From TrEMBL:
Keyword hit for Protease: yes
Enzyme's top EC category: hydrolase
Upper lineage: Bacteria, Bacillati, Bacillota, Bacilli, Bacillales
PANTHER family per the UniProt record, alphabetical: AMINOPEPTIDASE, BLL6088 PROTEIN
Enzyme Commission number(s) of this protein: 3.4.11.1
UniProt-listed GO biological process terms: proteolysis
Domain of life (superkingdom): Bacteria
Cofactor requirements of the protein: Mg(2+); Zn(2+); Co(2+)
Naturally occurring in which organism (per UniProt): Paenibacillus illinoisensis
Record-given protein name: Aminopeptidase
Length: 371
């Protein structure tokens, strides 16, 4: 018997998130062993008159490929997949791997090569900029373990989050996007954090289920050289299969001049990937009412109610501050009282305190209004 929650999710992905039109080509990429959602998506694309193509990826196989990759092989791999991506109108990416650490022992130089020669041209430059795309996780025992819940409880949480009324959220986001468009100076304060920067004339973009499931953020970017001060992130994060905790950055005129964490050496290796990796490409405020605690899965963690993320690396085209990098690493700071609290000021006006919006025009984004 089909789970109606899966069919509803598939219908939302195809009809709302990427809005498939007759004759459009849709690439569905599954990383993992799940099949029910893929089959449901194929059915929904068919109903819309689209053409569906499927890529099945196994992380253990990918790990073996990366460990043995040469530069020539990586360039050829990218050329093949880039050609395919150029023929796609839509992309639905589903991540359901059994072990989030599968790539943790791939040598750093191989991962840098993969990020710069494959991921950057195929995904950052082509898929992100030239297709209607959405990326999501899929619930399994591994994700439940990260969230410290039973598999059944995690599935219930997952479908609550992913089948949220995103059209309602989209309307509620207008007020924050409009305010960010009018804002010059941003200041963020909290334990170990006092950071200031400008977002003047950068713009703001609503995220309400069209690009990510789950969703719930509005993003912009700092003027590239305007960032000064210190930020202490309090959500653990995975990067290329390695867990980082207690990341702290100090900025001077837009550049990360000091970076520490539980693995300071490896952190700085990543930040030394290129010049843009030490500058910020995104600033975003998260407010999904169902997501409260980090689980080392950025698609969930960056949407946590009462959070923000401040991202080293590549800027998005829609809020382009000119920063270019082979990385885009969303790092999360949660400002609810149970995580130490904190404040966000726009042009010296307090707009959010301890994770709750405190000015009338933004109260529609507080958890009790979005559920």
């Amino acid at each position: 018997m089909k789970d109606p929650r899966i069919q509803k999710l598939a219908a939302n992905l195809v009809g709302y998130s990427v809005d498939v039109q007759p004759g459009e080509n849709v690439l569905v990429e599954m990383i993992g062993s799940e099949r029910d959602l893929i089959n449901a998506i194929i059915e929904e694309v068919g109903k819309k008159g689209g053409n569906v193509f499927v890529q099945l990826t196994d992380k253990t196989v990918q790990r073996a490929m990366l460990k043995n990759a040469t530069e020539e092989m990586m360039k050829t791999w990218a050329e093949i997949d880039l050609n395919r991506m150029k023929q796609m109108d839509c992309y639905i990416g589903i991540r359901a791997g059994e072990n989030v650490n599968d790539l943790s022992d791939v040598p750093e130089e191989k991962m840098k090569m993969y990020n710069s020669l494959y991921s950057h041209p195929v995904h950052s430059e082509q898929r992100v900029k030239h297709t209607k795309w959405v990326v999501l996780r899929y619930p399994n025992a591994s994700m439940a373990q990260l969230a410290n819940t039973s598999t059944e409880a995690f599935e219930d949480f997952y479908f609550d989050v992913c089948n949220l009324d995103y059209a309602k959220m989209d309307k509620a986001q207008d007020s924050l996007a409009n305010l960010m468009n009018r804002t010059d100076k941003v200041r963020i304060t909290g334990p170990g954090t006092d950071l200031s920067f400008s977002i003047k004339d950068i713009g703001a973009v609503k995220c309400s289920g069209q690009k990510n499931i789950p969703d719930g953020e509005v993003y912009s970017a700092p003027v590239r050289d305007s960032v000064n001060g210190t930020i202490s992130y309090n959500a653990a994060t995975l990067y290329n299969g390695v867990t980082f905790e207690n990341i702290k950055f100090t900025f001077k005129d837009g550049k990360i001049v000091e970076a520490t964490s539980n693995d300071t050496e490896r952190l700085n290796e990543i930040l030394n990937s290129d010049d843009g990796a030490r500058h910020i490409g995104e600033f975003a405020i998260g407010f999904n009412p169902h997501i409260l605690h980090p689980m080392k899965d950025i698609l969930f963690d960056e949407k946590i109610a009462g959070s923000l993320h401040f991202t080293p690396g590549q800027a998005y085209e829609e809020t382009d501050n000119g920063n270019r990098s082979s990385i885009h690493w969303d790092l999360v700071l949660i400002q609810r009282p149970d995580y130490g609290g904190g404040e966000i000021y726009f042009d010296d006006v307090l707009i959010r305190k301890d994770g709750i919006f405190v000015i009338p025009e933004l109260e529609c984004l507080n958890p009790d209004q979005l559920k």
